[in-house]
């Protein structure tokens, strides 16, 4: 399949290219946090509470401390008075979060005390000997109960479990509902799941009295990480150095690591030795940053007989667990695409975040967008069945048309560009819809249940801080920047410096491609390094599918400044102005007079060594930085909570064929096609890879992944025998079909795509399974759709 | 997840093993492949003070032909079972091996280890019960034989005493024509422990009448179930769809399926019944088609 | 608890050590030999990140104590390349086809793929998926891994 003509203008962008990072990964020379071993390192193991809710009566560490090789046991009593708590992103100052529990534990798995020893094995031996006396307390697990005033309060001082509760109304919703021919209400539940990387969170902290610097090597993906650690440890912000050249073994949103770093940073300072903590899988699953959205949706759609969907009411109740991490902000980001790819004119959105005695929820790929897409897309299919309309035709009736961009949605975001129908059509053509229907019908004739599922979903990309002031008006912030430094050294070699860590997104490849494109140097000759947080320029981390846009933009910006400088130096040599010059990368020459040229090598020599030949007043050397604000950022929300969220809007359309053996209930995916439009892809191989991976995440969330709790609040999903990740046998062959609608907001027309695949996959799979179940008048409205769950749905007498 | 400290002993032969077992009494575990034991030790669910490594004992890794059975040493690795010329005489046994875990598991895990561990969802215990295998155990003083059915007492619980070693298992060979077998299991992911499994081996005569049938289900939460006692009304019959249906329905009533994270009792019961029915149907088809092959 | 002396071959070189028996093989490789290419993902035998070759067959090195490997041959990802600065065919194919992203599952995945190719020089896609079903990846969705093995094993004319 040939590439879009939008790529014709590029030399390197959009081409097949091997990733720089992979060279070290395939020979086992990655630099992961668990590989870092400083001399004299001590190791950490955690003692965790087994109870949903309990008072800590006593901690007896005498036997533990007696084991040779044990250096210290630290409890919440000590650390919580030495560090400042981390507060939620919403206005709930009494929901304080410390690294260790003190006096009270609030979830099964909460860290109660920590052992430091010469080896991890000894630390675990000691941890087993620590006696903690608990008194069990009341607890609440069900968010629909926790929301009530008379339920047990997870944080007594908060006076409530409902720490965020806001009703947004955008447009004349009530009026539009009265005018609608029909309305349809439904409930769907997104199970507590997450993207669970194979590498757990790991870090080493080392404090130096001599320099006053706390060094941190961590497997992390977290905006403003050093600053929050410095704040909690009451250190100056320029005393914390996070090493971003650590390779992160997958994150997909989750590795926030604040309590880890505050705990281990404290220990490093206290003991004067490097301290390393590598979560084992048990610590990771129950008490780490592993758990994600756990959301109940109640949705009402208002629509006309001809299929036009005019209005929507959505209530989202989020069970955030016992503390607030990056949740409840995950209720906020989807506001930037609340009406999906459709022309829904008015929307009301009730966002509620409720505390329960479960592990706190952290950020997950998409930051709440995938659950929201699942909720909306489920409704689209329900409307189609109600109207006895083809779900493809219904979508086409409502999809924003390519000529309507930029398109302003009721909640204040403007979608930059798109061609949704074309992407859907391409996906359907690739899947060969007629053949798919024939296959589906053949399965049905054999006695199986079978269905085709479609989803058409937005991937907002680029990031923005706007959901922070939206969810906490006291937090007036509008900056969400990214930076890059590019330099050309005395030898004429290009080096770029990026300001954050990477977890598989191939940013070194991204930056070298972009810089190579602008400077017309082969990308393989451009070296890209990761700064540390002290010598880095500001960054906000690879979150929100933002790096192709923001880091790509920053790298391009810095490279363009360098290019302009080279041209200016060249122009100076010939006594002309920059506009009169042509730049080819290897040389610069006067327009239409190629014999008047000067090479890259010579220009570099002038800049570095021949000040006498430089334009007057020009800074010597060749080094430029570029720091920029997210395009369309900078505005605070208005009183209705309208604000422009993310800048660029990628789009995906999934087409899935599923069959179900009705006696067994297990769904099998036979065909998976994803139409994907993220504008110009700087590194298509990388984008495709992340899309396949996102779909695999979605398959897991749809069919098998759930963090489960017993009725007593005991955590049940601590191992990979309980929490099931899809293997190569569960993820089918996937076909991606690309489309390119460039963004008008970016240098090359690129949009972000780090969350691709995950955002539309559970929706499409759920729609396929419900298409199958609809033939017997059944439905399933919660995830995961395990064999048992589907079988239950088949047995029940529930018409919809 | 690091194991608690222990002392390690490499057993040179079976006699050495039995001596070590006696010497270290109750706080000792044998390790062969370790695919079940090592994770348990990592999670500190098992904390033996002494570990005896029996993986290098040649006499535990023999496979030999007896008159009516194949004798397989407890230390034979699962990957060896899959393609060994002798195990082809116990085709139901070789057929289930690809279902056990993944390639990595089978490169280390042993047949004896799986039987001794007795996970309710494991494949080999079910096949051992269905095929009426004879399990040989020894300690320093005695040698004894259990039928597979008697060997398994409950979930993760067998008749193996603290100082005993499982040495070998005898698998009866079925001779003659008109034999069919089938195995089915359902798990959420390939290689996981089954939510339920079923196995059947039967023999019909040239007119399609049932001569004998061994069948049962696993993954129910306790020990594997064998329905031998219920099969007499089927003997001499031509197995119709209705008969197979009715039998499966009836057989499952005998079971007490457990509820766990992945499957509740009702689902498990229905799954087991379905898989049992299907393995009987598939075995029957295989058995009757073997005659058609003959006729050609 | 007594330490045990072991002697084994790792990536073609003889290695001796005197270690605690409870040291897992993966921890021995990473901490003692500083071969940090093999990774720890779960320590209970599911994810496959720790996969190494033991006498040529892929095994989970988290499910073995190092003492159990005495006298045997271990190959890790560091031992796959034919020479310094070169890549084996499968390593090269992973790079060409982007069969990885974060790289954390990759060493185990490469070992499993190499073992497959050693036994079956031209595996089908179904055989590839079956072979790697014991190696979990959260980045790639497996598609480009399968593509890489197909690429590495295609007939060259």
Q: What oligomeric state do these chains adopt?
A: heterotrimer
Mean pLDDT figure of chain A: 97
Number of beta-strand segments of chain A: 28
Quick one: CATH superfamily of the domain at 390-463 and 646-795 in chain A?
A: Aldehyde oxidase/xanthine dehydrogenase, molybdopterin binding domain
**CATH-derived architecture of the largest domain in chain B:** 2-Layer Sandwich
Number of strands of chain B: 14
- Kindly report the average pLDDT value of chain B: 96
- By CATH, the superfamily of the largest domain in chain B comes out as CO dehydrogenase flavoprotein, C-terminal domain
Please count the helical segments of chain A.
20
The helical percent of chain B reads: 25-40%
The 3D shape of chain A can be described as globular
The fold-level CATH name of the largest domain in chain B is Enolase-like, domain 1
Largest interface: A-C, 59 and 57 residues
CA-atom Rg of chain A in angstroms: 27 Å
Q: Strand percentage of chain B, roughly?
A: 15-25%
**Strand order of the biggest β-sheet of chain B:** 4-5-10-6-7
Secondary structure layout plus pairing:
The complex is a heterotrimer of chains A (800), B (296) and C (157).
Chain A: H1 22-25, E1 42-48, E2 54-60, H2 62-65, E3 70-75, H3 76-79, E4 104-105, E5 111-117, H4 120-129, E6 131-136, H5 143-146, E7 162-170, H6 173-179, E8 182-190, E9 202-208, E10 213-218, H7 225-233, E11 240-242, H8 258-271, E12 275-278, H9 281-287, E13 295-303, E14 309-321, E15 346-355, H10 369-387, H11 391-398, E16 407-408, E17 414-415, H12 420-431, H13 433-445, E18 449-461, H14 467-471, E19 481-488, E20 494-498, H15 507-519, E21 527-530, H16 547-574, E22 581-583, E23 587-590, E24 593-599, H17 600-609, E25 622-629, E26 648-660, E27 667-677, H18 684-703, E28 735-739, H19 761-774, H20 787-795
Parallel strand pairs in A: 1-12, 10-11, 14-15, 20-21, 27-28
Antiparallel strand pairs in A: 1-5, 2-4, 2-6, 3-5, 7-15, 8-13, 9-10, 9-12, 13-14, 16-17, 18-26, 19-20, 19-25, 22-23, 23-24, 26-27
Chain B: E1 7-10, H1 14-24, E2 28-31, H2 37-42, E3 50-53, E4 63-65, E5 69-73, H3 78-83, H4 91-96, H5 103-106, H6 111-117, H7 123-130, E6 134-138, E7 143-147, H8 148-151, E8 152-154, E9 157-158, E10 165-172, E11 179-186, E12 196-204, E13 210-218, E14 225-226, H9 241-253, H10 265-295
Parallel strand pairs in B: 1-3, 2-3
Antiparallel strand pairs in B: 4-5, 5-10, 6-7, 6-10, 8-9, 11-12, 12-13, 13-14
Helix pairs in contact in B: 9-10
Chain C: E1 4-10, E2 13-19, H1 25-32, E3 51-54, E4 57-60, E5 73-75, H2 89-96, H3 106-119, H4 125-131, H5 143-153
Parallel strand pairs in C: 1-5
Antiparallel strand pairs in C: 1-2, 3-4, 3-5
